[in-house]
Write a structure and sequence with these properties.
The complex is a heterodimer of chains A (about 475) and B (about 100). Chain A has a domain at about 5-230: Amidase signature (AS) domain (Amidase signature (AS) enzymes, Alpha-Beta Complex), CATH 3.90.1300.10. Chain A contains 16 helices and 11 strands. Chain A has helices spanning about 10-15, 20-40, 50-65, 105-115, 155-165, 180-185, 220-230, 265, 275-290, 300-320, 335-350, 350-365, 370-390, 415-420, 425-430, 460-475; strands spanning about 45, 75-80, 115-120, 170-175, 190, 210-215, 260, 290-295, 395-400, 435-440, 450-455. Chain A has an 11-stranded mixed beta sheet with strand order 1-3-2-4-6-5-10-11-9-7-8, with helices on both faces. In chain A, strand 2 (about 75-80), helix 4 (about 105-115) and strand 3 (about 115-120) form a beta-alpha-beta unit. Chain A is globular. Chain A starts with 7 loop residues before the first helix and ends with a helix. The mean pLDDT of chain A is about 95. Chain B is mainly alpha-helical and about 100 residues long. Chain B contains 3 helices and 2 strands. The radius of gyration of chain B is 22 Å and the shape is flat. The model of chain B has no long low-confidence stretch (mean pLDDT about 90). Classes of the chains: A alpha/beta (about 475), B mainly alpha (about 100). The interface between A and B is large, with 65 and 50 residues.
Amino acid sequence: MIPNELTITQAIKELESGGLTSRQLTESCLQQIQSLDGALHAFLDVYKDEALEQADRSDMRREQGNILSPLDGIPIAIKDNIMVQNKRCTAGSKMLATYNSAYDATVVKKLKDAGAVILGKTNLDEFAMGGSTEHSAFGPTKNPRNPECVPGGSSGGSAVAVASNMCLAALGSDTGGSIRQPASFCGITGLKPTYGRVSRSGLIAMASSFDQIGPLAKSVEDTAIILSIIQGQDNADQTTANVEPFIANWENSIKGLRIGLSKKTWATGGIESQVREATEESLKLLESLGAELVDIDLPYVDEALAVYYILMPCEVSANLSRFDGIRFGARKQDLPLFETYAESRAENLGSEVKRRILIGTFSLSSGYIDAYYVHAKKVQTLIRQGYNEAFKSVDLIVTPTAPTTAFKFGTKLNDPLSMYLGDIFTVSVNVAGLPAISIPCNTNGGMPVGLQFMAPWFEEAKLLSVARFLQEKLN
Amino acid sequence: MKLTKDEVSHLAILARIKLTDEQINKMTDEVDSILEYVESIQKVDVTGVEPFAMPAKSQGFRADQAFDCDELTRELILENFPDRTGDLLTAPGVFLNPKS
């Protein structure tokens, strides 16, 4: 048994029985990072010494019978747009190449209080904008299944770290699919919780009304363990919801479960045949296990991508205005005020980031704001109503996570729109604020394919129960 | 909606991002194709529909009071300031006329 190959659930058993120490587990992950990360570049920073110290303290707590949580001693990686106090947080950008985090994100505080071992920070598309991690200012991350292919994005580093056993799980963030799509491309499990389930305090904001932090892990059960720890209302984030906490409720049957398929989704041109085959196989399996596949009409699902690519850039243009070279980040010195802003930003923000800021600036500018921003907010209302209606007749909705498997580097760089179209199945989830999970489906040895389930608001228990059940049957 | 290069230049000024002529040309083409795609929302009839807004949750604003932070946090915040001499923080003057 190689410790870094364990799931969290398996590692917990080994730690409990004394078959393994957190030190051994952590060393095993660090060794894997050492062996593979030169080639894969999943990590931007590795906290080797602190991780080993945290592991030793965990082992001492365990000896004294004082473990803090099920995650005590488990090595986790953190996407580098989530702050760990007194550690660099780059958001994948030159602008923050030397920025030192002033405080812990709430989720990081919770992981530390739970005794988790924090291995380091993982690579991402700059400011979480992208679907391939090619837009990182620090170089791309490679897909471990085929290093000529992208790992997906924007949480590409986290997905690769999990998929290549450099850690047992990782945190990512998801605004339009950035946890689910890289999970799909790398063959692992990725969960985006309901908007408001997990605090965004300490997450470098991209689009504040869509962003959510969530786990990438080797199994659905593992994502449940992490969600249980990181969830919760937070005074530091007014958008966190006052709801019953998620508590895992594993059911061992899906007989009678009604799973919605939107005809429009499955009829989309541009679904790669490998994706279609693998996901349709999984649907057949669901039916054979007793689920009822129900045709549903999801109105405006086509427009959801357009709504997202108006609303998200609008929020981006506002959220990134703080990167002006004045209080933190890179500053072009000795210029008057306007030039300080304009040149600090020109030199230190990448082209994808600039593109989105400009689109957002346009959509919010007077003369256009009604036709773009306000109109998109109204269509968002209709999209949410559409989901509300659909969930009256089904328990969950299923789609492929992405229309393709991981593509080769450079394929989509010359055409930003083609990169955006990759989000077609994931974005409506963020627009509606729903919880969604991507699990790998069987692909006859081809590149990984993800199947996505979405549930009504705050029904992670049902979502994860069904996903885990299917995952077991697929394995 | 096709944007002119002048309009894109204007957006760059609003966004406080300096763009070279070459970048403006490239950005104009790229933004055009993206706007063409997102304009599909115009087809959706939104008569009588309210723009989506999260229900306000906070019970009013917090008091406008300064509060202390611990020494480590304070030092980390100051450490990130690009031009600092002890507790003196240097920034460009705001007294010049802004570009419109």
